[in-house]
Amino acid sequence: MGICRGWYVVISMKSCIVLKKKEGLQREEWRMEAFRKTLEECNLTDIGFNGKWFTWERGNFPDNHIEEQLDRAVATEEWLRIFPEFQIQHLPHTFSDHCPLLVHSKKENRERIQKEFKFEAWWVLEDSFFNTVKKIWEQSEGDLLSKLNSMKRGLERWSRQIQSSREGRKKSLFSKLATLLEDERDEENITDLIDTKIQLNLEIEKDERYWEQKARINWLRLGDKNTAFFHKQATQRRQRNWICKMQDDNGRETYKLQEMEMIARMYFQKLFTAGRKANYEYVLSGVPQCISEEDNAMLKERYTEEEIQQALSELGPTKAPGEDGFPALFYQKCWAIIGEEVAILSQSSE
Asked: Distance between CA 266 and CA 249 in Å, rounded?
């Protein structure tokens, strides 16, 4: 059969993964569950699609018109690693009641964009992380934003040095563990065995932190420590979030990255730009005053450093970062180093 490094299949199925239909008889849940288990056993992932959601329809009148997503493409993780830009497009149909599926193994060439800073969650597990942060912070000058920019550059340099040695360290630990497991057990062997396992588990935990952050989920806290699982989630997320085209206010579609960036920017600027200030005094005149002067004075007080730290501690550690590029995890772990200046800026912006 030769070497098979991955495969995909486009199939028409009556047993759906999830119920996606408009009108018609409902499917039995047990049939869908059986098919989901089959895909899981074969390590197949739904690739997703572009275009209209349904792939089959019947009936031309409202009272007998049925739409369903019967046709879909699934692939192994190895296939998606080889073809990360693999894509299925639902085309318009004419003669058949099934729409044609166009398979792209590679999307159109995109303009290269400057890679943004990404704070990796596994960094905080490195022994040298906090000393590095402290050194960069103390050597940086300017206001808080200038210091954070210096922190980005410093951590990127530090990360490249650490990353180059991590894979070699993992291989060395695996090799050492295999040798220790074969040796005769004595007090020295058991001590080395425990120490090696601890070091190896730490390296594995760094991988899990990396894929947890890529997948943007917090299931690790529930005990599902499975790097392959998180890799699959991250791959699916990348496929799901890929935007191949956008439409402007005039209905014109574009595939060009710069034009799509402009469309997105203009949309959100328009969405969040305040309109003409209305006169609310008339409406508020009918609302009874229920906050006392003492309560109002308390509400207008400046936030304390402890309150700011408490608010940060309640944020999801690896959720989407702010404009500075740092997730809440960075501030939570490094508060003792940077907290005072963060609090001062937060208080001055009130």
From this structure: 10
